[in-house]
Write a structure and sequence with these properties.
heterotrimer; A alpha/beta; B mainly alpha; C mainly alpha; A: seven-stranded mixed sheet; C: mainly alpha; 15 helices; about 75% helix; globular
């Protein structure tokens, strides 16, 4: 009786080990792309947008929609591969880089994906891209903007979105333009009035890089960065950080925050009655729908770098069409996150069409050769074309950023107006930042 | 100057809330020598209770306290009767890890039901309002109300422990279990009561804290660590100790503010470069370590 | 020589145990030869890693009876030493790993001296405190990459690279780790029969008596703590070259400390097989629960709920862990 217990235990161990050895089922040949997004965690709001954007693009790619002016809408599936449809396998990395790398590995080895997309958090994209590079599987980065990512000389990494060097430079061009009177609706501001800057950025790969860029460009453009705070995006209390920020009495406050921390930061600033003349966020948390829906009037006046503003629909018919489809699907307008995941998948479709095969080497060659005209994109870029030489290999050289400001429209809604580039500004800028 | 005063004010207000957070822990520990690693999770549940009740009923969050207290009490008693009771029979290692298991359980139940995203109160009588009392001190209305309520709750518990028969029975059991039993005090019930009171106080603290801090299922841990430090400083088992220690720890959490004050007032360059805000919580851990080494009994403790 | 003989001598275990151990060892060696998914391989590597972590923890936590919840800081020291040595000066693993262990042991002596003046809960919380302080320091220390962390880029090296332990396929890592595992197990077998092991047992039984027998209790504990840290640091170094991406939040978090202690305790703290059994049950459980019931299935957190329940049940009803159950059953049989 006793020995049978031991035998049972022994058998259990054997079974356990055997169970581990059972391979996963082999799937039929179809185009599989693994997509890694933060579907839970502090940036889950952005994750939802990212997923919806990608799913909308998938719908369009897999069916023929002749009334949309995009190459990918013309055919159902990938024509050069006999109409094969794309399947997206979504995985949630929760904002954790090690988990992201783990999931990428499983997608490649167990799910046998033909390509990857993702991952929003630059820290996660960093580890995922290392995995992709190791296994020779193409990865298109739609939404991570840390400049480091394209400086690693990877051969299996392409990035559609412009990165933070461009975006941060935009900010300083904007500030410079303010002193020169180029901003719509604002007379020239003397430099001393906005000389002092202070930044608070989340401390992982993305924010830390932005913090450094702000200091660098600050020096180049002759501004004084009085304080650069790095904080934990997961923090539930930022009062110390905000107090430290206010203490140096900056004229402009600059942020790089994910969703929950962006909202928390703004609330804390409001609580402590911070009064900068200018408040700017490096996209991410500053442009998820929750930012406005949670903060309401407190959001008015904040500037954010972005790559998509619903107003673009007025000048780009294809953007209008996609935006209305997106709104019908999710109830929100396209945002920087969803617009870029949409564009990322769109880039994948073009790459696959050009490659005509699922062999990694062919996909790689195709990616290095594609050119997508700006007219086909929902984002206001000149197009998509990846650099194959220089020090930013794999980077889309035709991208562009915007700076928007939250303003109250006539009917009481809070919307983003374009304030930069100056020649496409859609409204007068509110300056200085309205008191909380 | 305003930085200094602002930090002091903030430290005091925060400290009062922290005392309340630690109160439950010290009562439970004083009574039965068990450290509850799930203490922060009780707080987290209190936060969700306050948040969701306020959102569901439209009541002002400050009025949800009685409900939070009730839930905390029941939860405490349930945890004791359903689980902790059995832990007490085992070695200390089992107790430690048992309450860790409880921590994981509560945290992930919250995760399952409430999701991982941050939630915060956006509406309420006092949410978002502040008083500017001059000299650059801006006091958030919610923090002030919360601090006042914390002090009131504290007084309430102190009265309970010292002026009621029940409270005295509890204290007696804590001081000498065998003796209490001989006197006819039902020690088992005292245990459950301690957990009930402990649970109630920390849940109320949570319902108060959610007025100005956002909540997600993971906030419990840092509060547990803070509570441990407060209790260690004040003395395991001492109620007044928890109060003063709470204030002290509130000040410790304002160290970045004091540091900034020095750096800016005296224009000390290197100080300004130190990322003191990143060490917000580090000083608490250091404080715990130092206190335990120098005066393990804490300020008022009567137990080692 | 005597030491090696001691290490290889398992004769104080009943025959059945030795047979099972050999069978499991054989299976471990043979595992990669069967068809397996990448997921299974990753799980097995996790199992071996946590067995080793647990074995290290077991010296001070099990045999020593002092619950240590701050092991993550040593994982960090080992991992960071190896990574920084590799990235900055191209120092191979086999040199940076002992160096990391050296740093870890030095740090453990430094904090061990004050730390072991405490006991019980106070000690446990103090270990958490020190681990978190070190983590906070690493998060702002630019030399080790601060919160951004450090990454090893495998394609920069000629794989398989046995000197630096950079491989493309997991199977290499598996066998190297298995080697560590066997060495670790033999070391633990020696340890429990060594003088220090006996000293710890008497200290755990009754500290006062031990002291009156002339044992330097404080010193014994510190030495044991140092051994535990060396174990953990070595595995931490391995972790760095395996995962190839380390950052404080990930590598030195409290969660890791808790997991290490939990597994050893669940399997049976203070026994030789305990940590291995604990890891063997909890790691596959955690992995597969997460896979089947995790975020993908929309039920975030259920895996950890079950995990927490198991821990609660074991700690309430069988604090000596799974191995404790085995011994209890045996004792009953003997009577």
């Amino acid at each position: 009786m006793k020995s049978s217990f031991k035998r049972a235990r022994f058998l259990f161990c054997i079974l356990l080990l055997t169970a581990l050895a059972v391979p996963t089922a082999v799937k039929a040949e179809e185009i599989k792309i693994g997509v890694l997004f933060p579907l839970t965690g502090g940036a889950a709001a952005a994750g939802r947008e990212l997923r919806s954007g990608a799913e909308l693009a998938l719908e369009i790619a897999n069916s023929a929609m002749p009334d949309i002016d995009m190459t990918m809408a013309k055919n159902a599936g990938i024509k050069s591969m006999g109409g094969s449809k794309i399947t997206l396998i979504f995985k949630d990395h929760e904002g954790n880089p090690t988990l992201g790398a783990d999931l990428a590995k499983k997608l490649i080895l167990d799910d046998k994906v033909h390509g990857l997309m993702g991952a929003y958090h630059s820290a996660v994209t960093k580890t995922v891209s290392a995995v992709a590079e190791q296994y020779g599987i193409p990865l298109i980065n739609d939404s991570s903007t840390s400049p480091e990512l394209t400086k690693q000389g990877y051969k299996w990494f392409w990035r559609t979105t412009p990165h933070d060097v461009f975006f941060t430079k935009d900010l300083f061009e904007f500030l410079k333009g303010m002193t020169e009177g180029k901003v719509k609706g604002v007379p020239a501001v003397p430099k001393q009035d906005i000389l002092n800057l202070a930044s608070a950025c989340e401390k992982t790969e993305w924010g830390a890089a932005v913090s450094e860029l702000i200091e660098k460009f600050g020096k180049d453009y002759g501004f004084e960065v009085k304080k650069s705070i790095l904080y934990a995006a997961k923090a539930t209390d930022l009062s110390s950080e905000v107090r430290s920020l206010i203490a140096v009495k900056p004229d402009a406050m600059l942020f790089a925050s994910y969703t929950s921390d962006a909202i928390l930061m703004m609330k804390t600033l409001k609580d402590q009655k911070a009064s900068p003349k200018l408040l700017w966020g490096q996209n991410a948390g500053f442009e998820v729908p929750e930012f406005v829906s949670t903060l309401g009037d407190a959001a008015v006046g904040s500037l954010t770098r972005t790559v998509f503003i619903p107003k673009i629909a007025q000048v780009k018919p294809v953007a209008a069409k996609i935006n209305s489809m997106y709104k019908a699907k999710t109830g929100n307008d396209l945002s920087g996150a969803s617009a870029r995941s949409f564009t990322g998948l769109q880039a994948w479709v073009h790459v696959l069409e050009k490659a005509g095969s699922l062999k990694p080497a062919d996909i790689q060659k195709a990616a290095n050769a594609i050119e997508i005209p700006g007219a086909e994109l929902v984002v206001p870029w000149q197009g998509i074309k990846f650099a194959t030489s220089g020090d930013d290999i794999g980077q889309n050289t035709l991208g562009m950023g915007l700076i928007g400001q939250y303003q109250k429209t006539a009917d009481g809604k809070i919307d983003l107006e374009i304030v930069y580039p100056f020649n496409v500004a859609t409204a007068n800028m509110l300056y200085p930042f309205p008191k909380f | 100057m305003d930085i200094l005063l602002g930090s002091i004010a903030s430290g005091i207000l925060l400290g009062m809330v922290l005392s309340l957070v630690a109160l439950g822990l010290t009562i439970i520990f004083g009574l039965m020598d068990i450290v509850n690693f799930a203490h922060g999770e009780f707080l987290m549940i209190g936060m969700y209770t306050g948040l969701l009740t306020a959102q569901a009923t439209g009541l002002d969050p400050l009025l949800t306290l009685p409900l939070a207290a009730a839930i905390g009490f029941l939860l405490g008693v349930a945890c004791y009767g359903g689980f902790v009771k059995y832990l007490l029979r085992g070695p200390m290692i089992a107790q430690l890890l048992g309450t860790f298991g409880l921590m994981l359980l509560l945290r992930n139940i919250a995760l399952l039901f409430f999701g991982s995203e941050d939630r915060a109160l956006h509406h309420g009588l006092l949410v978002g309002k502040s008083f500017d009392i001059g000299m650059g001190i801006i006091i958030s209305a919610t923090k002030l109300a919360v601090a006042v309520l914390a002090v009131l709750s504290f007084c309430g518990v102190w009265l309970l422990m010292n002026r009621t028969k029940l409270g005295k029975a509890l204290t007696a059991t804590a001081l000498n279990r065998q003796g209490a039993r001989y006197m006819g005090i039902p020690t088992e019930r005292m245990n459950a009561l301690a957990w009930g009171i402990g649970g109630a106080t920390v849940t109320v603290a949570g319902a108060l804290i959610v007025n100005f801090w956002s909540v997600n299922p993971y906030v419990g841990l840092i509060f547990t660590m803070i509570a441990f430090t407060v209790v260690a400083l004040g003395g395991f088992g001492s109620v007044p100790g928890a109060f003063f220690a709470g204030l002290a720890v509130g000040f410790i959490m304002e160290i970045p503010g004091f540091w900034d004050f020095f750096a800016i007032t005296f224009d000390i360059g290197w100080m300004a470069d130190v990322p003191m805000t990143s060490f917000k919580y580090t000083w608490i851990y250091v404080a715990y370590f130092v206190i335990m080494l120098i005066r393990p009994r804490g300020l008022f403790g009567w137990k080692q | 020589m005597e030491a090696i003989r001691n290490a290889l001598d398992f004769s104080d275990f009943p025959r059945l145990d030795r047979v099972i151990a050999l069978a499991v060892a054989a299976l471990l060696f043979a595992f990669p030869l069967f068809p397996h998914s990448a997921f299974a391989m990753a799980t097995m590597i996790q199992f071996l890693m946590f067995s080793l972590y647990g074995m290290g923890w077991n010296t001070i936590g099990g045999y020593g009876g002092q619950v240590d919840l701050g092991k993550a800081q040593y994982v960090g020291i080992g991992a960071y030493t190896t990574t920084v040595c590799l990235l900055r000066w191209d120092i191979p693993f086999w040199m940076s790993m002992p160096l990391g262990a050296g740093f870890a042991v030095a740090w453990s002596f430094l904090i061990g001296y004050p730390l072991f003046k405490l006991k019980g809960h106070y000690f446990a919380i103090a270990t958490i405190a020190t681990s978190l302080v070190l983590k906070d320091l690493f998060e702002v220390w630019k030399f080790v990459g601060a919160a951004r962390g450090l990454g090893i880029l495998p394609f920069k090296y000629q794989t398989p690279d046995f000197l630096r332990l950079i491989f493309k396929e997991d199977v290499y890592y598996y066998y190297v780790l298995l080697g560590f595992f066997i060495v670790g197990l033999l070391y633990m077998n020696w340890f429990r029969k060594s003088r220090l092991g006996f000293q710890l047992r008497s200290i755990k039984d009754n500290e006062e008596v031990a002291r009156s027998l002339g044992i330097n209790v404080h010193w014994a504990k510190i030495k044991t703590y140092a051994i535990a840290t060396a174990f953990v640091s070595v595995v931490g170094s391995f972790h760095a070259v395996y995962i190839k991406n380390i950052e404080p939040e990930d590598t030195m978090s409290l969660d890791i400390s808790i997991l290490i202690a939990l597994m050893a305790m669940l399997g049976g703290a203070g026994s030789l097989w305990g940590p291995i059994i604990g890891a063997g049950v909890l790691i596959p459980l955690k992995s597969y629960l997460k896979e089947w019931l995790g975020a993908a299935a929309g039920l975030v957190g259920i895996d950890l709920i079950i995990y927490g329940l198991i821990i609660m049940i074991i700690s309430a009803f069988e604090p000596r862990g799974l191995w404790g159950i085995v011994e209890k059953v045996r004792r009953r049989r003997r009577v």
